[in-house]
Amino acid sequence: METAILNLKIEITNDLLSYVGFATSKVACCGQGPYNGIGLCTPASNICPNRDAYVFWDAFHPSDRANRLIVERFMIGSSEYMHPMNLSTIMLLDSRT
User: Fold this and answer.
1) Residues near 25 by Cβ (< 8 Å), separated by ≥ 6?
2) Domain housing 33
3) How confident is the model at residue 2 (pLDDT cuts 50, 70, 90)?
């Protein structure tokens, strides 16, 4: 599952046009230094004006919007992200027992 999350992060980062609304995947929303990529988000950090336009919240974590896309892929996406079936299908099958 960690590999699927990493692959989805790479997909979002490399193909922003498919994910309308992201302005950048190269700069974090909150952090210090070049690209806001040093350290975690603290009161001394630079903070972006619109967090939904950023793929990454800080140097390590996806933004809320990116996380929603990741969860959506696991819940209703193809077997490319969850194999052999997505979580909605698993939950539906489980509810029948």
Assistant:
1) 12, 13, 14, 16, 54, 55, 56
2) 2-95
3) low
Give phi and psi for 42, each to the nearest 5.
Answer: -130, 175
pTM across the whole model: 0.74
Q: Are 40 and 46 in contact (CB under 8 A)?
A: no
**Which pLDDT score is estimated for 79?**
79
User: Integer distance in angstroms from the first to the last C-alpha of the chain?
Assistant: 25
Residue 11 pLDDT more than 70? yes
Integer angstrom CA distances of residue 23 from 12, 39, 44, 92: 11, 22, 23, 36
> 54 near 22, Cβ under 8 Å?
yes
> What total of structural domains would you count in the chain?
1
